[in-house]
Amino acid sequence: MILLFFIFGLCMGSFYNVLAIRIPAGESLFTRSHCTACSRVLNAADLVPVFSYILLRGRCRYCGSRISGIYPAGELFTGLGFAACYVLFGFDIMLPIGLGIVSAASILSVRYLTKGAPSR
After folding, report:
1. In this structure, is the dihedral angle defined by the CA atoms of residues 4, 106, 73 and 90, taken in order, positive or negative?
2. In a domain, 61, yes or no
3. pTM beyond 0.90, yes or no
4. What is the pLDDT along the chain (120 residues), one digit of tens a residue?
5. Is residue 120 part of a domain?
6. 72: which of 24, 53, 88, 109 fits an S-S bond (Cβ 3.0–4.6 Å)?
7. Domain of 36?
8. What are phi and psi for residue 117, nearest 5 degrees?
9. DSSP letters of the chain?
């Protein structure tokens, strides 16, 4: 079960990266993922959380530009956080609360690291 929570967290972390980066930039959440340098649409093999980054050595498959390490860091943080919540709480009422806190922390951390602190 821990592995399932970890994998689920990796996938959710990938989605949270999209939320944290696209919403402040005014981009749509419903467009396909693309390279920020060459705008080429990424295929499914390029989007496997953490593992694609490692296999591609942190570079775009198409143009070779560097991919920010924030993407796999956000995914890994969320995956580890989800697994830790399961270890700490099991299937208790505290589990969804813990997952929500990890989710919010992940989104806010990636937002802060990519765009800086939100202005007032």
Report:
1. negative
2. yes
3. no
4. 999 999 999 999 999 999 998 888 888 888 898 888 898 999 998 899 999 999 999 999 999 999 999 999 999 999 999 999 999 999 999 999 999 999 999 999 999 988 766 665
5. no
6. 53
7. 2-115
8. -65, 140
9. -HHHHHHHHHHHHHHHHHHHHHHHHT--TTSPPB-TTT-PBP-GGGGSTTHHHHHTTTB-TTT-PBPPTHHHHHHHHHHHHHHHHHHHHSSSTHHHHHHHHHHHHHHHHHHHHHH-SPP-
Q: Is residue 87 part of a domain?
A: yes
Could you identify the residue written with the tokens 């050595």?
57
The torsion region of residue 26 among left (phi > 0), alpha (psi -120 to 50) and beta comes to: left
**Structure tokens that stand for 43 in this block:** 């295929």
